[in-house]
Structures are given as structure tokens and as C-alpha cells.
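Task: sequence design from structure.
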């Protein structure tokens, strides 16, 4: 993967052995906008949309603390029908709360604002999404609570997202063409290829074509493994590290098989109680400490160096 004479942040991070545990950005809502043209380096912010519509969507996303991502199918294949948009929310129950729509004109993206303001439910009629594959858009099928698999392939934002992300996008699209989208920047360029499963809110990193198919297959089967896991987006970094440590100690488990029941801050770090469902442990206490890394170049764009915070689980014991 290394190219002589050119710096790649993901190559450097792997050579250093950078930890990615606890690096999933916090958030429980996502806005997806299918955009089949070229993506600006700053994603949605850089699109030349009708100003009023863009301002409305941006303000609604900020109010809902939702992340806006541009998406497209791998290879920019030509698809029948207008591009799509979606609003997805994580609610802690495992229900995949989603609203989907289509847009031809910029002004039609204001539907996103309405979707963000409207309570939704997994079985609501307007949770139907346009059919995938060769099915007609005039005969939408119910989305049925299936998750969406996002692969960061935003090459203008960071070269590693393209170099490592696009092969993963191809491999996953060949296996699950109806579930997989390439997307703009999701954070953590040096952990490319990055995959986010939404609205589950699970970040995976350091993937390649082979490992991505295995990891996503396990996830869809209800088994989250500690390998390649960056974290759960409804948890804060120390909590993410605690859950990852439990998964590493006791083996893979479903997305909702473990919950953070208590988080106590002390002088040395955090004492975090994680409760679980059988066959996992009923409750364990995990001690997590934070440390800073030396200054390193963490992205492909620009020569600046910075330090990262690493969260280490230093002990796991029965509650």
C-alpha cells in the first residue's frame, strides 16, 4: 500500500501501531444526501446548492446534532430515478429509525428539515425507501429496519480515504449492493479504510477488502468484534474503550448486549461499569486511563503535527 516518496497517514499510523479504540465521533443522528457528482473537499459545506435550502438543512442538522454526509454507490454507477436522501437515528433499542426520500431540485432537500422535526417509528408508512437494484422507484419497498453500511472514500479530503476506502467499497458493494454506500469524511483518516454502520452507530477502522467483508458480515449477524472496532457513537471515548475491552476479553456480542451503567471520574481516569446479557458477564468494572501520544503527522493533508489522546483499559474485574 505504501507509495515511495509520498506520505500516507494510514501507512504511518499502522507503522506506529496507533490505537483506534475510543475514536468514534459522538452522535446519534445522520443525514445522507446522495450526490452523484464530484464531492468537494469539505463535503456538504462545499456544494453549490440553492443558498436558502442549504442554510435550512445546515441549521436543522446543527439543531438535531446530526452529521451530514454525501453518499453515492461505488463506482458512481448510473441509477434510474432521482437521487435519494435519508435521515437516520439511533435510539438505543436496536430499531433502525429511518426516513428516506428523493430529490431532483435543490429545494426538495427541505424535506430533510421536516423529517428531522417529525417523530418517527420503525413501522411507520413513510419509512419506506425507494427499492434498490433493478426494482422500479415507482414501487417502493419497505426498508425493513436494515442498517446502512457507509464506507469513507472521500479522496479530496484525505488521500488514504480513497486509496484504502475504494477497494473496501468495491468489496462490500459486491457482497451487499443494497446496503452499501460510499460517503464523505467520517473522521479518523489515519484509520482508513473506515466503515460506519448506521443507525447502529458503530465505527470500524484499519480495514481492507477481505477484513471488511468479514467484519460487516459478523456485524449483520449480530456479532461485534473488538478487532477493527473504533467505538460506539452513543458513548464517549472512555466508555467506548471500556466496551471494546469487554468485547476483547469475553468475545463478540450484539450491538446492544452491553450497556454502560455507570461512569465515575477519578484522579487516574475513569471507573466504568459495563452490564451485559448472557452468555456474557452480568457486570464488570473497567478502569480506563488516558494518555497523550508524541507529536505526529496524523493526516495526509498538510504537514502539521499534533498529539492524539489514547484510552487504555488497564483492568477488568467482576462488579
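Answer:
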Amino acid at each position: 500500500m505504501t507509495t515511495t516518496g509520498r506520505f500516507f497517514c494510514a501507512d504511518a499510523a499502522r507503522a506506529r501501531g496507533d490505537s483506534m479504540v475510543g475514536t468514534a465521533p459522538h452522535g446519534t443522528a445522520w443525514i445522507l444526501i446522495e450526490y452523484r457528482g464530484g464531492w468537494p473537499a469539505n463535503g456538504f459545506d462545499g456544494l453549490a446548492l440553492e443558498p436558502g435550502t442549504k442554510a435550512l438543512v445546515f441549521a436543522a442538522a446543527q439543531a438535531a446534532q446530526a452529521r451530514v454526509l454525501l453518499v453515492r454507490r461505488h463506482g458512481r454507477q448510473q441509477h434510474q430515478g432521482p437521487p435519494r436522501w435519508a435521515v437516520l437515528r439511533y435510539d438505543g433499542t436496536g430499531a433502525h429509525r429511518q426516513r428516506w426520500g428523493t430529490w431532483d431540485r435543490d429545494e426538495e432537500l427541505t424535506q430533510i428539515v421536516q423529517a428531522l422535526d417529525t417523530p418517527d417509528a420503525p413501522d411507520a408508512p413513510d419509512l419506506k425507501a425507494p427499492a434498490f437494484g433493478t426494482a422500479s422507484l415507482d414501487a417502493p419497498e419497505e426498508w425493513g429496519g436494515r442498517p446502512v453500511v457507509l464506507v469513507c472514500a472521500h479522496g479530496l479530503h484525505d488521500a488514504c480515504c480513497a486509496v484504502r476506502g475504494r477497494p473496501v467499497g468495491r468489496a462490500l458493494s459486491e457482497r451487499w449492493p443494497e446496503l452499501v454506500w460510499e460517503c464523505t469524511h467520517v473522521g479518523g483518516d489515519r484509520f482508513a479504510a473506515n466503515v460506519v454502520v448506521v443507525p447502529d452507530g458503530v465505527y470500524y477502522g484499519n480495514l481492507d477488502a477481505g477484513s471488511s467483508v468479514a467484519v460487516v458480515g459478523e456485524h449483520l449477524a449480530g456479532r461485534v468484534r473488538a478487532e477493527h472496532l473504533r467505538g460506539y457513537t452513543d458513548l464517549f471515548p472512555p466508555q467506548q474503550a471500556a466496551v471494546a475491552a469487554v468485547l476483547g476479553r469475553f468475545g463478540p456480542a450484539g450491538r446492544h448486549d452491553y450497556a454502560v451503567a455507570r461512569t465515575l471520574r477519578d484522579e487516574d481516569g475513569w471507573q466504568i461499569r459495563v452490564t451485559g446479557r448472557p452468555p456474557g458477564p452480568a457486570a464488570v468494572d473497567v478502569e480506563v486511563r488516558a494518555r497523550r501520544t508524541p507529536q505526529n503527522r496524523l493526516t495526509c493533508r498538510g504537514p502539521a503535527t499534533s498529539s492524539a489522546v489514547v484510552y487504555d483499559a488497564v483492568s477488568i474485574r467482576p462488579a
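The domain at 1-235 is CATH 3.40.30.10 (Glutaredoxin).
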